[in-house]
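Supplementary Text 2. Reproducibility record for the structural model of the 274-residue chain.

All settings were left at their defaults, and a single model was retained for analysis rather than an ensemble. We include the record here because the model underlies the residue-level annotations in Supplementary Table 4.
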Amino acid sequence: MPTEEITAPRSLAEFQERLRRVSRSLPKRLKQCAEYVASNPDKIAFSTVADIAADAQVPASAMMRFCQEMGFSGYSQMQKLYREEYSQKWPDYSTRLSSLRNGGAESPSTLLAEFSEAGRASIENLARSIDQDKLRRAVTVLAGARTIHIVGLRRTFAVASYLAYTFEKMRIPAILHSGVGNFTQHHMLGDGDALIAISFAPYTADTVALAETAAARGLDLVVITDLPTSPLAALDAVHLLVSEIDVGNFRVLAATMTLAMTLSVAVGARRRVV
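Retained model, structure tokens:
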């Protein structure tokens, strides 16, 4: 086993090449991990470390040691490589339901337990991982905005709608860009305004387009997204990264909704309206 510190692979191809080179020299448990990871790339992208370890028939601690041996800080960093690769190949809902049925997790009581646990773990991870300085900056940006524009389409529409609802109840000027009727409201972006843009892989083109327009017009941006490689993360913005745990490839939005609640109440408190 090498004792020198190695850097994390920068791409999935680099990781797979490293795996090919070192797998034969790994101890038995770590070799099991390597073989499973190499054979099940789709599962790595969408499953928790506990699920992967169970499928590979190794302890979760062995899977974590394997990730570190490969140069990653932990499982989540390795998973990011796979998510970046497969984000544009996200399974459709029929495939996701089949995944649940095949795993025996389609009963209502089992689903409730699975989604509850995924939500709890996602929220705990948010509390540990959120950048506190960026969170404060986001509140400052939104509290000082003339009007807050909000965009989050498809799966994140519920979060965007909640933000619009809470701002309206606190009488904070806000506009929800819903895309209803395929109407765009880019012309409503004005001087002194700010935009909250929410999107996770596979990223919604209309959300990204509105964020890019706002950035080009000099508006302050607060971005809620999942990966540093997100097209939203490339914009000049306050970036708040959220990782949600999946259940059968259905993404729980517990952490994202918790972050939205935090932002809305903190902005209201800063504006002294709550």
